[in-house]
Write a structure and sequence with these properties.
The protein is of the alpha/beta class and 169 residues long. It has a single domain, classed as Rhodanese-like domain (Oxidized Rhodanese, domain 1, 3-Layer(aba) Sandwich). The protein contains six helices and seven strands. A five-stranded parallel beta sheet has the order 1-6-5-2-4. It has a two-stranded antiparallel ribbon with strand order 3-7. α6 links the parallel β5 and β6. α1 runs parallel beside α6 and α2 crosses α6. The longest helix is centred in the first third of the chain and has 17 residues. The N terminus is likely disordered.
């Protein structure tokens, strides 16, 4: 039953984020893949986020953040807020720069791949997918099984500062 619910959720998300995009999506996705890698591992995402080379965004739900925690350097933006609100929050997170390198992470890599395609149509030109997700899936073990650091889900609204950008103590 839970698997069927997840499949229905993915179908609804795909329709919500991708339906109005049409042919432009395939053109922009092709352009993006030619210029940069489209996926990265959890370990690569962690290192890149800590150094400030990528803006890591955890797109899962608040319930999921509370269940597993949030990758320590990730900005938490719930993709279920809808395309307009999500895109506005993401634009604010990247300081208004849609060319900023963004890495999306979800639970297992399915939603992040769907959202990656949508964001290409919305003008974000450098989006990668952390395909193995937080808990792992068909593309790898995931953030947690690699032992990468998390912060409590209750800290979802706490601003993130990469270690390389943090003020010296």
């Amino acid at each position: 039953m839970l698997g069927r619910l997840r499949n229905l959720t993915m179908a609804a998300l795909t329709a919500l984020f991708l339906a109005p995009t049409g042919h432009a999506m395939s053109q922009q996705t092709s352009q993006q893949s030619a210029s940069s890698p489209r996926t990265m591992t959890a370990a690569q995402a962690h290192a890149a986020a800590q150094s400030g080379d990528v803006v890591l965004v955890d797109i899962r739900t608040p319930d999921e953040w509370n269940e597993t925690g949030i990758p320590v350097a990730a900005h938490a933006i719930d993709m279920y807020e809808g395309p307009k609100d999500f895109t506005a929050k993401l634009m604010q997170t990247v300081g208004g720069d849609p060319t900023r390198r963004i890495a999306l992470i979800c639970r297992t890599g399915n939603r992040s791949a769907t959202l990656q395609a949508y964001l290409a149509t919305a003008g974000f030109t450098n989006v990668v997918d952390v395909a193995e997700g937080v808990v792992g899936g068909r593309f790898g073990q995931g953030w947690l099984k690699h032992g990468l650091p998390t912060r409590p889900g209750s800290m979802a609204s706490t601003p993130v500062v990469p270690l390389s950008k943090a003020p010296a103590k």
